[in-house]
Structure formats: structure tokens, C-alpha cells
Amino acid sequence: MTKSLLLMLPLCALLWGCQTTTKQSVCDGFSKLTPSLETSVAILRTDRPFANQVASHNKFGTRRGCWK
Questions:
Q1: What is the pLDDT of residues 9-27, one digit of tens each?
Q2: Could you give the angle at the alpha carbon of 59 between the alpha carbons of 53 and 62, nearest 5°?
């Protein structure tokens, strides 16, 4: 039991040092989806709900100021 506790101490110390110091943004991990014209037409014809999700994603990013 004590051996496992002693082994966990260095692991905890390593994890403690992994904290990020950069500021996070609501835009982190987002990028504007820009399918080609052919892809857009194909998606609109075959999968309208997905096309709506792409449009919603892009509107959300624009409202948040992630892209213009």
C-alpha cells in the first residue's frame, strides 16, 4: 500500500506541471467550415439536416467573433 502511494507522488507532481497558462477562448477548437460549391450542392440534396448544422456552426462562430 505504501509503495503505491510513494509511486503516485511523482505522478501527481508531473500532472500538476501540465497546467496551461494561456488564456482560453470560446473559439478554441473551432474553424469555419467551407465546403466547395460542388460539396455544398451535394450535401443540400442528400443531407439537409447536416447542411443546416454546418450553417449553424458557421453562424455561431461569426456571432462569437471567431471569424468574419
A1: 777 666 666 666 778 888 8
A2: 145
38-50 average pLDDT score: 96
Residue 62 has pLDDT above 70, yes or no: yes
Give residue limits of the domains in the chain.
33-68
Please give the grid coordinates belonging to residue 7.
Answer: 509511486
Q: How far is CA 23 from the centre of its chain?
A: 15
The Cα–Cα gap between 54 and 61 comes to 11
Q: Which residues of 31-52 are buried (b: 16+ CB within 10 A; e: fewer)?
A: eeeeeeeeeeeebeeeeeeebe
